[in-house]
Each structure stands twice: as C-alpha cells, then as structure tokens.
Amino acid sequence: MKKVRIGVIGAGRIGRMHAENLVFRVPEAEVVAVSDLRLEAAQACAAALGLAGAHKDHRPILDDKKIDAVLVCSSTDTHSLLIEEAAAAGKHIFCEKPIDFELARIDRALAAVKKAGVKLQIGFNRRFDHNFKRIRQAVAGGEIGKPWMLRITSRDPAPPPIEYVKVSGGIFLDMMIHDFDMARFLIGSEVEEVYTLAGVMVDPAIGKAGDLDTAIVSLKFANGVIGTIDNCRQAVFGYDQRAEVLGSQGMAATENDRPNTARISTARTVSEDLPLNFFLERYTESYVNEMKSFIRSVTEGRETEVGGLDGRMPVVIGKAARLSYDLKRPVKLSEIK
Questions:
Q1: Cα(212)–Cα(232) distance, rounded to whole angstroms?
Q2: 182 contacts 132 by C-beta, under 8 angstroms
Q3: What pLDDT, on a 0 to 100 scale, did the predictor assign at position 132?
Q4: In this predicted model, what pLDDT tens digit does every residue of 242-285 receive, in sequence order?
Q5: CA-to-CA distance for 231 and 243, rounded, in angstroms?
Q6: Residue 242: phi, psi to the nearest 5?
Q7: Handedness of CA 107, 100, 103, 217 (dihedral sign)
Q8: Terminus-to-terminus CA distance in the chain, angstroms?
Q9: CB within 8 A of 164, min separation 6: which ones?
Q10: Which contacts (CB < 8 Å, 24+ apart) does range 256-259 have?
Q11: Cβ-based neighbours of 131, under 8 Å, separated by 6 or more
C-alpha cells in the first residue's frame, strides 16, 4: 500500500510529538517535511527523525505535489488560514484545536475544505482514549439504558505560564473545549443551553489577564440529558481526568489513569500512586490512535472521525459559557452568532 506522505506545519511540542508518532508508530504514513517559523526548531525535528525537509515557511510543504496531507500544529491564530491554504493546495488536513476563536473564520475554513473536497480532522484526541471510548460504547450500545446525567472533571496539575494564558483564548476555548467536545461525544446529542459559575481561585495573575482559572458549567442537551463540567487550572495531586454517565439501567464511569494499579494497605493507611501528572503521559496512546484514524480516513476515502462540525461546536459552547459568566444567566447556544 502506498504510504500517505505528510508535511508537518509547526515543530513545537505538539507538532514534534505528532511527527514522532507518525514516524515510529504509524507505518502507513511517511513524514517528509516539517516547517516552523523558528527554523532551528524545524531543523532539530527533522534531524531527530531523519527527515529530508526542514523549512521556515510552510509554503514549500503546500507546493510539494508529492505531499498528500498536512498537520497544522502551529499557533492557534494561524489555524483557519492554514486550513484554507492547505485545502486550496489539495492537501488533506489534520488541525489541532481550536480551528479559530472566531466563528466567521471557522466557517470560511470549513467552506474551503468542502469546496476542495479534502479530508479534515480536528485534534480532539480524547475521543480516542481507551477509557472515554468505553463510556461512549456503553451509552451508544444501551448498556446503561437511557442516559440521564453527565459529569466530567478535568483539572491540570499546574497552571500554564501567564504569557500563554494571555493568548490562549481563555479557559473555555483552551482547556474546557476538550470537555465540551467530550460531552457531545459521550452523550451523542447537541448542547442547547449552558450556565456558568467561575472565578479566579488559583492565580490572581490569570484574573488580571482577563481569564478565569476555576469553572463549573452546567449543560442541557437536546435529548434531555443534563450535565456538569468542572475545570481547574491546578490540582496538586496530578492530572485529574474523570467522567461519568448515569442512565436508567446503570452507570458508566472512568477514573484517573495511574502509573500502576497497586494499592498499598497497612494498619494505618491505604494508598495508591498519584495520577499521571502530564497530558502527554496521560494521553500517549490516544494521540497515536487519532493519527492512525486520520491516515485511515485518507487511505480509505472515508469521513474523519472528528470533522469540521466537531471543531466548530465546542467553540460555540465555549463562547456561550463565557457569555453566561459575564451576564450571570443561562445562555442558549442559539444566542451565539
């Protein structure tokens, strides 16, 4: 089988990780070039992985007729434009989340993809996690009956640098956006209304930057399910990733992944190791699985598992969540234009 030839745009932490996964763990793909505005980053990535091409500009990748698909792993403010350019060049596209912070630019990018007839997959890697996939299977297969209630907890071990916070798009479009996607994925229904309670509990500098670091968002789904998502920028015990769906015939729930499953019991305490402490550790396999899924979509000519609408809707929910906080009332998604 002919390998899918890939160009990676953006050689930062996430771009390099995807490139490594493709090179070492996805035999159906061949990474041929990488670009980054910091040429030294592209060159370092290319040297480490034995790639022939390292560029400062992404255009040589888009102009290369032998490249079938691109990974957009650059800064968020470049995503939608790069999707448009890649689509015009006839490349299939994998893009990290979010597509953009503005819905008009998202819609323009999705229109370009549709016009070009290329594949687009958005990087919501948690859909490919073994734990969350099993909950979705239980819900979709009717194992727990009719779903009634959803609960998602997502907390980082430590807040990001304040300079990142300033350009991140805020907690709802940077951090909780994964959980908005997960809510849609697990329940299989669209969110209609949200209500937000939030504040600055962890670091006053985050508040000064105009953001929040702790939030609870209540969700009302079109199929009647109600849900809650809680996020915090700091959980001192590690990366806290849990989910639960309660239904008429039972419950599906998943706890944190840990380095091991050992439980140490003594006369005084019962203890376990702390959860995995970083998202790259916690979601190692899901990142590989999403790359495999993207490559299969290209080789088999089928729709991607996380398409353009899946990239758009969490942004709508995130904007509604922020508006709810600002207005101190429930907000229907139909209010977001």
A1: 9
A2: yes
A3: 98
A4: 999 999 999 999 999 999 989 999 999 999 999 999 888 899 99
A5: 12
A6: -135, 155
A7: positive
A8: 45
A9: none
A10: 257/131, 257/282
A11: 243, 254, 257
Query: Is the previous residue joined to 275 through a cis bond, with omega within 30 degrees of 0?
Result: no
Q: What is the DSSP letter of 275?
A: P
Q: Report the 10 Å Cβ neighbour count for 288.
A: 20
The set of residues, in sequence order, having a beta carbon less than 8 Å from that of 141 and lying 6+ positions away, is none
Q: In sequence order, which residues have a C-beta less than 8 Å from that of residue 182 and are 6 or more positions away?
A: 124, 126, 127, 132, 152, 243
Q: Per the structure block, which two tokens stand in for 240?
A: 């806290």
Q: Taking a C-beta distance cutoff of 8 angstroms, is the pair 227, 239 a contact? A: no
DSSP letter at 262 equals -
* Tens-digit pLDDT profile for residues 184-196: 999 999 999 999 9
- Alpha-carbon distance of 83 to 120, in angstroms, equals 9
Instruction: Count Cα atoms within 13 angstroms, Cβ side, for 142.
Output: 0
- Residue 65 identity: K
Instruction: Tell me the three state secondary structure of residue 254.
Output: strand
> What would the pLDDT profile of 132-161 be if each residue is shown by its tens digit?
999 999 999 999 999 999 999 999 999 999
User: Locate tokens 């807040």: which residue?
Assistant: 159
Number of neighbouring beta carbons within 10 Å of residue 272: 13
Alpha helix ranges (H) inside the chain: 13-25, 39-49, 59-63, 79-88, 103-116, 130-140, 162-167, 171-174, 177-187, 204-208, 279-282, 284-300, 308-327
Question: Which amino acid is located at 187 in the chain?
Answer: I
Tens-place pLDDT, residues 47-76: 999 998 999 999 999 999 999 999 999 999
CA torsion 87-95-196-185 (nearest 10°) is: 100
Residues whose CB is less than 8 angstroms from the CB of residue 255 and which lie 6 or more positions away in sequence, other chains included: 242
Q: What is the tens place of the pLDDT at every residue in 286-299?
A: 999 999 999 999 99
Is 70 exceeded by the pLDDT of residue 314? yes
Strand partners, 220: 193, 226
